[in-house]
């Protein structure tokens, strides 16, 4: 705006959102005042609320030292020098007395940029002699596991502009209108619909994406999606609708899978009638779905991460990939490999997503496993030898070596995350955190986790530093976010904090570069960004750059078009319906072909007599996980509510807006009711990320979903938060 | 959007088939104008019983009516319609406030006049981003919409481009006030099986 007597600065990215949307921030007299879209990108409410988050009176202002009982939330301000001295002393003390493995670092993805994030601490601790970390993506471990087993690479999605070529899209637990999943994803889907693409939503909820696009809604019981995929595969195989030529050329193991479908392995044919009794979807609908998907080519089945966050979540992503393979919907415009919905742009196939786009974290001297890469990724027990699965954090702290965890943990280092709030079973987490000897947290706000710290180090926001932003789900661009304002109060970046700690720990060369030098080094050392930069000076000013060859990019196009030239990164070089690597695990819970295994805390669990409702915890459109829950502007837009079907509400005398108590054997929360026809009877849902705020009795008045969720990972290592039974009552 | 001598009315276009109910228009507006209360709203319109349910969204602000009921209702000359573009504006210093008066609130069929939750709150509402319009930029709700469901411009041009449909789900055209908005409706579902 020409009249503002000011200039705009390129920024964007909202913590751990799937969008990483660029936007312009207008400043006046050194203060950010307004936000405007940048180029063709359109941030959502999270972006526009950022002014209120940055300037929130609740921002932490100085380092804090615990002054009350652990978890009571009482702190006194201290200087940076004193705070860093304490943290360094405790690190040295812990290493010498208990060994470096007793330093447990829970680093998460709460920071949006590629320079400033948890890698700062990983680098520091690796130089210091190692630490115990966690494994298991809270978002998508089921999809990662399945994609590596089936295709040999994590990202398997087309670019979003390719939807326009699809005749049919199955939105399978996929809700980008709220979860974003790439800045322009919803818009590209709208354009596809206007071009004639048909949409079917398979989801326990009638989501905003379903409302926007879908002609059919197929509500399904949580945790049973794999059974539906198998029954569709059964119909396709029985009716001869499978693509025999594709299967012969590009896959291995179809016969074993077919035998399983037909019941030759376990005497249970995976018929639509079989699946109806499990999923609640009628056999006729299953048959229709199968025929539609197999005959409307090209069809894109898009599996969301939510159905994979269940008891045997990786089986869902394995099964959808196999369904795409047997119908030959892979390698062509408008199709989809249907496994891990992350666009295969900006990453080298086979490589760990974006691992080469951070500051170098070095190697952990304690992680001496000779097994590396995908072979280890597909071996969950092996992974847990040196690290702790995300669902096991609290058990690991409570029990340590006694229960087979890598160490007895004495020092907890939390960075870029709010694990108490965001990982399952908060009440067990409270018990665990009370037990730890020492805990340091880098934070911007007094979160549930920070309240348990001995030392809190106040971190600046990405508006207060320069960084590199690149989407991780569906964007084909990257850009440099520029410092918009000076650091508020006495905040520092994670990198600054770790640099200052490194001096106190006697480490040399922790950060020899300035912020700008680091960004340039990351950009130039990573092939995709280096290739795409023509003018570094323009990039440095915030110009948006696009990865090369990112237009209408089809995943595995080369592998399918020229099987003689391109091989999948699997041991067989083909799409592995049957995985020898999984067979070698010899674990019936991780079968070599995708199978339906009835999970815990579903409708069949005896526990359902006491807790008859299945709870799913969704990504909420006004939060990026737990970030933004404390921004009143966003709270005003839509309250945090429990979705409950009118039938279930009637049975319990619940009316819209009533205050409810939602509970199970792990805890209880208080939340208001949204009585609706948009959710399957027997299922309730609430957004994850609300800030845990217990009363004296332990009732969480703000309804943090993880008070209720179970801390047991899927066999592949996925968070299984959508396998959760509860009961609901009016208070 | 330079003044068009032949046209005296700006207006909105809303494509209900493109709205995903994301609220971005509400917050983009709010932070741009730095208001204590939202000038826009998005209604979620649920119809039908499980599983035959449909949902549409309706995003609205002040509709800058051709014959605004708020202006006729205001006893204090706080509301006025600008001759050159039809935008309805407020002189807050003339406003008697919600508690003392509140006539405009009752008169507007679209609840477009907003008062913050304070004793002496004055009327406020969408000003069609007049500062942006003066710079030839469209209102922020329009340029912020992730699915491009909104547009704004001279009403006659909007009608030329998008047709003359004046109704949408959750909205009834009030012929007395003549709201300056054109809609594209959400199509009925077409069953696949």
Structure write-up:
The complex is a heterodimer of chains A (731) and B (193). By secondary structure, chain A is of the alpha/beta class. Chain A folds into four domains: 2-54, N-terminal domain of TfIIb, CATH 2.20.25; 64-138 and 360-469 and 477-546, Rossmann fold; 156-346 and 553-583, Dimethylsulfoxide Reductase, domain 2 (3-Layer(aba) Sandwich); 606-730, Barwin-like endoglucanases, CATH 2.40.40. A six-stranded mixed β-sheet of chain A has the order 5-4-16-15-14-6, covered by helices on one side. In chain A, helix 3 (80-98) packs across helix 20 and helix 17 (393-399) runs parallel beside helix 19 (426-435). Chain B is α+β, with helices and mostly antiparallel strands and 193 residues long. Chain B has one domain (34-184): Alpha-Beta Plaits (2-Layer Sandwich). Chain B has helices at 24-33, 69-73, 103-107, 130-134, 140-144, 155-162; strands at 10-15, 41-47, 54-60, 79-81, 88-90, 150-154, 181-184. In chain B, strands 6-1-7 form a three-stranded mixed β-sheet. The relative contact order of chain B is 0.26. Chains A and B meet through strand 3, helix 7, helix 8, helix 13 and helix 26 of A and helix 1, strand 3, helix 4 and helix 5 of B.
Architecture blueprint of SSEs:
The complex is a heterodimer of chains A (731) and B (193).
Chain A: E1 8-12, E2 22-28, E3 31-37, H1 45-48, H2 50-54, E4 64-66, E5 75-77, H3 80-98, E6 103-107, H4 119-128, E7 134-135, H5 141-150, E8 168-172, H6 176-179, H7 185-194, E9 198-202, H8 208-213, E10 216-218, H9 225-238, H10 244-250, E11 251-252, H11 254-262, H12 272-279, H13 283-295, E12 299-303, H14 313-326, H15 373-377, H16 380-386, E13 388-389, H17 393-399, E14 411-415, H18 419-422, H19 426-435, E15 438-443, E16 455-458, E17 467-469, E18 477-481, H20 494-504, H21 515-525, H22 527-532, H23 536-540, E19 545-546, H24 557-561, E20 575-576, H25 580-583, E21 613-618, H26 632-637, E22 641-645, H27 646-651, E23 659-664, E24 667-676, E25 683-687, E26 725-730
Parallel strand pairs in A: 6-14, 7-13, 8-9, 8-12, 9-10, 11-20, 14-15, 15-16, 21-25, 22-24
Antiparallel strand pairs in A: 1-2, 2-3, 4-5, 4-16, 17-18, 18-19, 21-26, 22-25, 23-24, 23-26
Helix pairs in contact in A: 3-20, 4-20, 5-14, 9-12, 9-13, 9-14, 12-13, 17-19
Chain B: E1 10-15, H1 24-33, E2 41-47, E3 54-60, H2 69-73, E4 79-81, E5 88-90, H3 103-107, H4 130-134, H5 140-144, E6 150-154, H6 155-162, E7 181-184
